[in-house]
Design goal:
The chain contains 7 helices and 2 strands; from the N terminus they run αββαααααα. By secondary structure, it is mainly α. The chain folds into 2 domains: 77 residues, no CATH class; 49 residues, no CATH class.
């Protein structure tokens, strides 16, 4: 159910569950509401906290790791500020290179993907520069 979505923020490899990633949670927070994510953490914690009989010591240890990582996810989530993409359609239109329409949304989507891939760090001016670079690359610079 909601448990699968929280897995985005928890990295799994052959050694088991690794520490919760702040970046993973930040990406999840960008796409989803904080309350929904908290609900998913609570559900995941409840499911992983099930004390079924007949568990091996290894399963119990793994359960403890999951519980600790979900607690860290909860803590990280309280600290994180939801990223807000700094550009809008009006920014594209202000360049005078494209008319209103689907191309504006496509360009914004590309710049947004670039911004997300850089961990939400580029500020508004850097995003505008990337937008202009893409327009120039397409021969549509004003």
């Amino acid at each position: 159910m909601g448990v699968a979505a929280i897995a985005i923020a928890i990295t799994i490899d052959t050694t088991g569950i690794l520490p919760v990633s702040r970046l993973g949670l930040l990406r999840l927070l960008y796409k989803e509401d904080r309350v929904v994510i908290k609900d998913r953490i609570v559900v995941a914690a409840a499911l992983s906290g099930d004390k079924a009989s007949g568990r091996t010591k290894q399963q119990e240890e793994a359960q403890e790791v999951v519980q600790k990582e979900l607690a860290r996810a909860w803590s990280f989530l309280a600290e994180l500020k939801k990223p807000v993409f700094p550009l809008r359609g009006r920014d594209v239109l202000a360049e005078g290179s494209l008319a209103a329409g689907p191309d504006v949304g496509l360009l914004l989507g590309e710049v947004e993907g670039w911004w997300v891939s850089r961990e939400f760090e580029p500020h508004r001016e850097a995003c505008l520069e990337e937008m202009r670079r893409l327009l120039k690359e397409r021969g549509k610079a004003a």
